[in-house]
Amino acid sequence: LDSIDWILKEALLAYKKINRKYTGENIYDVIEQIIRQFQLEQKLFIAIIDNDPNIVKAIRLIEISHTGG
């Protein structure tokens, strides 16, 4: 959000190729690297529209690691 006008903004922070098996754990590892790279640990909000089981698992792992459950 733009703090003056409260306009929702979006940006692509990173585009990473996963050179390992396409699993929830490996996707989680890549997303965690990006979160740390941009220091987003305390500013994290994720919304997904992809219901691929591996994506869903990766997002659940992120929720657990950042919210404790």
Automatic annotation (TrEMBL):
<dbReference type="InterPro" id="IPR012337">
    <property type="entry name" value="RNaseH-like_sf"/>
</dbReference>
<protein>
    <submittedName>
        <fullName>11769_t:CDS:1</fullName>
    </submittedName>
</protein>
